[in-house]
């Protein structure tokens, strides 16, 4: 499932073989613009979430099976952010040791914090809290140890202001983000000049058909200035993420954002 450009109102179903082309299977219309649409990894179905710039309205989108439209419902208007939010991600329930139902995690535009909005059993927003950062947050992503094989659960984020990406060890049960470690990148060389999203690819999941680098955990950052993903290999050293630049992947749209689906999620829409 591919979001064609930032702040889009559509999603496109594509094959991984066509990640760098304009060829699509179908286009879903009727979404309300969001910088990034985030798949519910726990439901593993046809459900996505998006928060509209400016209004901070969080919406739930159900993609109709075999169709091209979505059913929309409003979950909340989030008062904790300022005018805009960027770089959303989903924290799956496996990152908690107790009972949990996932969380919607966003970056603060013009606000140096990460926002964590926890879901209740009814899949509405319950507890919310923030994590301090050094500058406005352009992308966030969550790295569960169940997927990565790492010893710790991690949250990661980046800011374009200081061209910095960072990792935290997270305890979602106690709402504690600690051991922050910062790493620098060069915009347009090994990281985005602009952008609004980070995407985690665990070992075994290709970014495109024939991807030769599936033996590693990777983070991709998109760029709203160029039609590229900047891909980094991530490894673990103690309580921090070590980032090693890997490659650029060409995509058809500035700020394009590919959400790679499981078989179950694909079957829920096709």
Q: How would you characterize the overall build of this protein?
A:
With 270 residues, the chain is mainly beta. It has one domain (2-269): 6 Propeller (Neuraminidase). 4% of the residues lie in helices and 45% in strands. The chain is built from two helices and 20 strands. It has helices spanning 145-148, 263-269, and strands at 2-3, 11-13, 26-28, 38-39, 47-51, 57-63, 70-77, 84-91, 103-109, 113-119, 125-132, 139-143, 154-159, 164-171, 176-184, 198-201, 217-222, 228-237, 240-250, 257-258. The longest helix has 7 residues, at 263-269. It is globular.
Mean pLDDT: 94
Total number of β-strand segments?
A: 20
**If you compute it from the alpha carbons, what radius of gyration comes out, rounded to the nearest whole angstrom?**
17 Å
Termini separation comes to 12 Å
**Classification by helices and strands:** mainly beta
| Low-pLDDT residue intervals, each spanning 5 or more residues | none
Gross morphology: globular
How many strands, which pairing sense, and closed or not: the largest β-sheet?
Answer: 4 strands, antiparallel
Under CATH, the topology is which?
Neuraminidase
**In percent, how helical is the residue content?**
under 10%
Give the tags.
2 helices; 270 residues; single chain; four-stranded antiparallel sheet; mainly beta; 45% strand; Neuraminidase
């Amino acid at each position: 499932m591919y979001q064609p450009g930032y702040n889009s109102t559509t999603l496109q179903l594509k094959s991984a073989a066509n990640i760098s082309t304009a060829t699509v299977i179908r286009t879903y219309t009727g979404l309300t613009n969001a910088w990034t649409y985030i798949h519910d990894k726990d439901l593993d179905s046809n459900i996505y979430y998006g928060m509209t710039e400016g209004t901070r309205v969080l919406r739930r989108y159900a993609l109709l099976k075999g169709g091209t439209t979505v059913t929309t419902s409003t979950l909340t208007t989030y008062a904790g952010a300022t005018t805009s939010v960027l770089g959303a991600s989903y924290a799956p329930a496996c990152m908690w040791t107790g009972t949990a139902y996932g969380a919607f995690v966003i970056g603060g535009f013009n606000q140096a914090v990460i926002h964590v909005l926890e879901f209740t059993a009814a899949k509405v927003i319950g507890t919310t809290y923030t994590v301090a950062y050094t500058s406005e947050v352009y992308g966030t992503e969550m790295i569960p140890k169940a997927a990565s094989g790492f010893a710790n659960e991690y949250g990661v984020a980046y800011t374009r202001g200081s061209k910095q990406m960072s990792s935290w060890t997270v305890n979602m049960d106690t709402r504690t983000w600690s051991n922050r470690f910062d790493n620098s990148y060069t915009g347009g060389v090994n990281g985005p000049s602009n952008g609004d999203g980070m995407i985690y690819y665990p070992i075994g999941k290709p970014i495109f058909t024939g991807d030769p680098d599936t033996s590693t955990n990777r983070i991709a950052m998109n760029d709203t200035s160029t039609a590229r993903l900047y891909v980094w290999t991530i490894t673990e050293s103690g309580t921090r993420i070590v980032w090693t630049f890997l490659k650029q992947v060409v995509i058809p749209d500035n700020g394009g954002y590919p959400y790679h689906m499981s078989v179950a999620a694909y079957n829920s829409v096709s």
